[in-house]
């Protein structure tokens, strides 16, 4: 179901943890839906010098968090803002369709963290996309 | 990458076909391959084999041979029982009672029947997953034609008060179906004394092959046919008989019900050992389902702060095969309707793990599995924002 | 008592499972037994095996992989196709067209649909068993939602003008289903060029296992689900997948469609040899069905003055496995509806013999079978009052 890249990032998550004195923190998701992602940023001169994540969620959510933090580390805030969920999914060599929203979560978490930083520093927040939702399809069954 | 040994703890999903069962099936593929409906010797052999298997199934549940009809599995049996009874009794009424924790083969069939104009009552269950017989009694109306309550649940293992439910239905002259797919080889069944009119079973849950099952239809009970066509199964279920599958089901069920007490004691002992360690040695963990009225091999626990699919992935990496009620593993992003029905908050349902033990599990499996589960839970908690919050909120950071 | 050697000439009833097919199935019973819906490695292997088999089935009929859905056999495929299409399109119309010579899996499903308010037109067939495309065209009304005409008949072997029927349906935007259960391994099929929307097949007719089949559903065609429950088969067909059966179906169909011309030429040559001898060397004998538009292995002949069941018993005694359209062998005392539809008087239908040849039949089988058939016919005629009358009425007693 998952690509090798997803499994690698799931088994060996990069940048997992907490930055206690983070410059920006973003939290997205909802425990009811089974996913919460928290992104911590350290920003110096408009550049993300450190990033960490905490995630409660599935394999795709963990791998997306890990990959997303890799993708934005060392980037300017503008560059980081433009890292889309598609880019995260592609870097992971694809996600099952039903799991795409887990990468959306990563994109939104980064946006929230960047805006948190901006607001804390007296800047206008950038415009975020609409909040993430799970597509509540028909029920399926395990076995 | 991952370790190659598999410790299989997902026996409620399916079981390995017993090699003795496969052995018994083999001649019916390429040697005695006759179509049982034909007239010649080769065909007569197939017919005899089918009737022998039917006898074994009947015996295993206290039924008579001509009350057993072979199907393609539990799903077909459930569909047939419900749709067949509903259509046959439509003139008498359009009300069907079932429970909130049935398998999807029942709930989705009920959804379909609802679209066809039937009214469905879903009985609630208590926090342990049991239907209250009084709820059933008060749900019955003049229009009630069918009650379908599963014998034991596939996720949390809770066993229902089947004889009492059966008696309540019999008293009111209402058909009673039970999905016993999880029960063969785990609990004794007697359709007579338990007042069961219709019963579904599926071979692959008790070391038989996949794709074969049976429906018990009590003599005198008339339900509509479901698969229309040739005159097989006494004109009740069309389609060329899956002879090897039927033979396999026969052998598997005969084995499954023999020595039942010894086998289930063995499994229950292992189960309890693993369950106790999980509950006592991993904090913030709870048991889902009933403590005693429970399938012998079933463990269903929730670990706070973590999500089940990630847990399964880590366990798979350690070679442990298990299951979860988390939405994230379901392809539909809805957590298990069973866990919600026993009152679990969605986020707790997400952190559920089901381990279903079987005949081949050992003490070593249990120790190994426990260690791996503990490590995996700790690892996932270490990355969970919910756990981080919990630690911060605790009076002292131990 | 009876000779122990069996000369099997009933391949349209079922076939021996090819030992290579059984070989391929074996690991999926006790080694790779994972439930394909689960998450772990064992389950992923099953999933991959299923998708590989699906690809093989798709390739064999010119379809795409996601257009193939596994079922428990031809009967389920037929039931699903007809009921699923009828219910999905009920709002558009309630008229279904089929032929007078379909398998009971179609006709009895149509009977059921009729009770549910659908109107069924049974197209007549000509004396050779073929539907006339003009009849079909004029039977179509504004309410027609589905046409189901079998690709080739199981009793008389007649092949229908499927591409023309498909084109006529496509032109009017009407769904076209064909029961191709008898056709795999006998004729090339291409669902694209033949304008087929739905197609049923069953593994045990082409040296695969019993109890497994498939329904092809053209992309974009929406029919209702039939077996409700779990989310298997892309949420279209519930039930734990019969993994060994599916693997067996895949291997069997791949073999069945390879070298098709060589194999069918071999069978056709044997068939023609036997058929010619029967028609020329046994008097008062006639061929039922079409001379050329006919399944390569099919012989269906009527012997005047005798009854088919007795003939089968004698042949069985000689070790020959065959079939008849006689009422006396059917358990229902109705002679074959197919033979009646091509205009055979009931008494001639009673004297019919079906021999369906397969890959393992040899020249020796043919000679032996011919001799035994001739002897058996003579023996039965010698005791037949009809034959006695006939002899008396003839101008001279040769
Ligand atoms: C309780 C219950 N009912 C029905 C089924 C369906 O059986 P099958 O998958 O054999 O169709 C299952 C398992 O899949 C089950 O656990
Ligand atoms: C033309 C035709 N359709 C359908 C079927 C039913 O297939 P099955 O017996 O595999 O269900 C058969 C054979 O039995 C057949 O010959
Ligand atoms: S976190 Fe639920 S599906 Fe990814
Ligand atoms: S003669 Fe006996 S059934 Fe027809």
TrEMBL record, chain A:
Gene Ontology molecular function, alphabetical: iron ion binding; iron-sulfur cluster binding
Record-annotated NIF system FeS cluster assembly NifU N-terminal domain positions: 1-121
InterPro entries, alphabetized: NIF_FeS_clus_asmbl_NifU-like (IPR017787), NIF_FeS_clus_asmbl_NifU_N (IPR002871)
Annotated GO biological process: iron-sulfur cluster assembly
PANTHER family: IRON-SULFUR CLUSTER ASSEMBLY ENZYME NIFU HOMOLOG
Protein name per the record: Fe-S cluster assembly scaffold protein NifU
UniProt source species: Methanospirillum purgamenti
UniProtKB/TrEMBL annotation, chains B, C:
Superkingdom in the source lineage: Archaea
Annotated ranges, domain Aminotransferase class V: 7-367
Record's keyword annotation contains Zinc: no
One cellular component (GO) term of this entry: L-cysteine desulfurase complex
Gene: nifS
Pathway assignment: Cofactor biosynthesis; iron-sulfur cluster biosynthesis
Pfam families, A to Z: Aminotran_5 (PF00266)
Keyword match Zinc: no
Protein function: Master enzyme that delivers sulfur to a number of partners involved in Fe-S cluster assembly, tRNA modification or cofactor biosynthesis. Catalyzes the removal of elemental sulfur atoms from cysteine to produce alanine. Functions as a sulfur delivery protein for Fe-S cluster synthesis onto IscU, an Fe-S scaffold assembly protein, as well as other S acceptor proteins.
Cellular compartment(s): Cytoplasm
SUPFAM superfamilies (UniProt xref): PLP-dependent transferases
Cofactor field: pyridoxal 5'-phosphate
Binding site for pyridoxal 5'-phosphate: 74-75, 154, 182, 202-204, 240
Ligand binding ([2Fe-2S] cluster): 328
UniProt cross-references to PROSITE patterns, sorted A to Z: AA_TRANSFER_CLASS_5
Gene3D superfamilies named among the record's database cross-references: 1.10.260.50, Aspartate Aminotransferase, domain 1, Type I PLP-dependent aspartate aminotransferase-like (Major domain)
Catalytic function, reaction form: (sulfur carrier)-H + L-cysteine = (sulfur carrier)-SH + L-alanine
Family the entry assigns: Belongs to the class-V pyridoxal-phosphate-dependent aminotransferase family. NifS/IscS subfamily.
EC top class, as a word: transferase
GO biological process: [2Fe-2S] cluster assembly; amino acid metabolic process
Protein name as annotated: Cysteine desulfurase IscS
Oligomer and partners: Homodimer. Forms a heterotetramer with IscU, interacts with other sulfur acceptors.
């Amino acid at each position: 179901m998952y690509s090798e890249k997803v499994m690698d990032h799931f088994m060996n998550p990069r940048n997992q943890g907490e930055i206690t004195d983070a410059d920006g923190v973003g939290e997205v998701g909802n425990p009811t839906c089974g996913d919460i992602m928290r992104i911590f940023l350290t920003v110096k001169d408009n550049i993300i010098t450190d990033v960490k994540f905490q995630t409660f969620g599935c394999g795709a959510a963990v791998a997306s968090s890990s990959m997303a933090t890799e993708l934005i580390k060392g980037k300017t805030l503008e560059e980081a803002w433009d890292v889309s969920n598609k880019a995260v999914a592609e870097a992971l060599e694809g996600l099952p369709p039903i799991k795409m929203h887990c990468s959306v979560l990563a994109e939104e978490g980064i946006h929230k963290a960047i805006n948190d930083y901006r607001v804390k520093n007296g800047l206008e927040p950038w415009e975020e996309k609409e909040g993430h939702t799970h597509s509540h399809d028909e029920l399926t069954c395990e076995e | 990458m991952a370790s190659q040994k598999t410790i299989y703890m997902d026996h409620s999903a399916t079981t390995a076909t017993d090699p003795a069962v496969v052995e018994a099936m083999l001649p019916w593929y390429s040697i005695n391959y006759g179509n049982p409906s034909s007239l010649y010797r080769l065909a007569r052999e197939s017919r005899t084999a089918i009737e022998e298997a039917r006898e074994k199934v009947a015996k295993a549940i206290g039924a008579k041979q001509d009350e057993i009809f072979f199907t393609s599995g539990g799903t077909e049996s459930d569909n047939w029982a419900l749709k067949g009874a509903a259509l046959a009794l439509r003139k008498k009424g359009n009300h069907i009672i079932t429970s909130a924790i049935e398998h999807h083969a029942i709930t989705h069939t009920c959804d379909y029947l609802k679209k066809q104009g039937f009214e469905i009552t879903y009985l609630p269950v208590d926090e342990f997953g049991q239907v209250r017989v009084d709820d059933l009694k008060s749900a019955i109306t003049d229009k009630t034609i069918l009650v379908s309550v599963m014998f034991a649940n596939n996720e949390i293992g809770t066993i229902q008060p089947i004889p009492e439910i059966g008696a309540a239905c019999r008293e009111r002259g209402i058909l009673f179906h039970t999905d016993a797919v999880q029960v063969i080889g785990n609990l004794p069944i007697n359709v007579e004394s338990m007042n069961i009119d219709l019963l579904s079973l599926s071979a692959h849950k008790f070391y038989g092959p996949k794709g074969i099952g049976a429906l018990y239809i009590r003599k005198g009970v008339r339900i509509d046919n479901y698969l229309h066509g040739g005159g097989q199964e006494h004109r009740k279920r069309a389609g060329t008989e899956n002879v090897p599958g039927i033979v396999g089901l026969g052998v598997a069920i005969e084995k499954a019900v023999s020595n039942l007490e010894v086998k289930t004691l063995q499994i229950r002992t292992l189960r309890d050992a693993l369950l106790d360690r999980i509950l006592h040695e991993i904090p913030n963990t709870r048991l889902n389902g009933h403590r005693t009225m429970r399938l012998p091999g079933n463990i269903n626990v929730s670990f706070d702060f973590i999500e089940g699919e990630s847990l399964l992935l880590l366990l798979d990496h350690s070679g442990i095969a298990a299951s979860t009620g988390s939405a994230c593993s379901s392809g539909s992003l809805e957590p298990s309707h069973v866990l919600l029905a026993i009152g679990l908050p969605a986020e707790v349902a997400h952190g559920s793990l089901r381990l279903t033990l079987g005949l081949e599990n050992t003490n070593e499996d249990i120790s190994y599995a426990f260690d791996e589960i503990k490590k995996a839970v700790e690892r996932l908690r270490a990355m969970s924002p919910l756990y981080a919050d919990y630690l911060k909120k605790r009076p002292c950071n131990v």
